[in-house]
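Sample entry (402 residues):
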Amino acid sequence: MAIFSSSHRHVRVRPLAGSLLAAICILARQPPTSATGASAHAVRAAADPSCAVSELKKNETGGMVVPSPDGKRYLVNKEDAKGVAQIYLGSVGSAELTCLTCTQQLHGPKPNRFKMQPHWHPDGKWIVLAAERDEYSPPPVLGWSRKYVEGQLQNGLWTNMYAVSPDGLRWHQLTDFKTGPSGTPNGYTGPAFTRDGKRAVWSQAVDGNILRYWPFGRWEMILADFDGAADVPRFTNLRNITPRGMNWNEPGTFGDNTHLLLSVSAEKDAQGMDQLVLNVDTGELRNLTQSPTVWDEHGKFSPDSQRILFMSAYPYRRDPNASKAISIRTEFMLMNSDGSALTQLTHFREPGYPEYSKKGGIAASFEWSLDGRSASLARLFFPDYEYWTVRFAGPCGNRAAP
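Predicted structure, serialized as tokens:
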């Protein structure tokens, strides 16, 4: 999620692994604020026994785990010894990681630039990621803080999109974003690939006038064809598919080759956002959460497209401040792909649970495992992250898995 400076049109915050939100969550470091009344909980027990939480523990990898399409490899997005966010490649069954972005390669970003939002192309031949640009214009005063800048980079601002081969040797820049007048793309979130890999969607920041587009500015959603058959991957046939009036938008994942899960808001205050499914061919929209005053974000379909995991302030919906950027409180939630069977998975902000922390922190982004039996979770203590793994009693997100 993004937060802009009204005078300098720059976004504010997002997680190392892709899409989060954000928050000027400086207050997310502090103990949770008091709710106006008792906390309203979603159903604790999963409707499907295979989706019951069997284990929730900290992940020692130090970053988000993103499995490859064939399940043999995985990516980890974490900081190196110098504090620079890098992309690492590992093999299943081994703890050894190889940094793909720590050394300079032809046409690749510089080693000292942040790299984030790693996504595998469905055929496994390319990894698409965001990299900090060499030239951009942080705002005065706030921009003097590297932590502030890092938060903006994690949110997608001041980045370009690259494709790299899994061996880390072949690099291709896919976008040419830059700081400029209103309408000039200055960074992005995504992309989400269709299941067949032939198309992709991303959202790009084009206007930081938060007085007009409160409070995240205006984003455009772009649909493009992806040509990865040759040695030079590229996007073609770009078109703007932003749903009317939804100036804040963020792609999640495709459930097939047509239906895309989105975090969007049509409200004047975009801090109240919903999870919607968009048919990218017809423009048809289906609202799954229908809670325009509650912060619902980062939804992703499970591998079998039957479940959706997302982060939400729903458990604290009686407290309006829980859905405000400066006092946000969120948990990871699970629901069926039609929006039914809403279940709360974590209790980061509730004393008495093992995952509770007095420091606060919020549920941020995540990645499903391919077998649907677990998910890698990121908890944000702005602008830093803590990583967890949630395991289900069965193949919750992949009914075809053994």
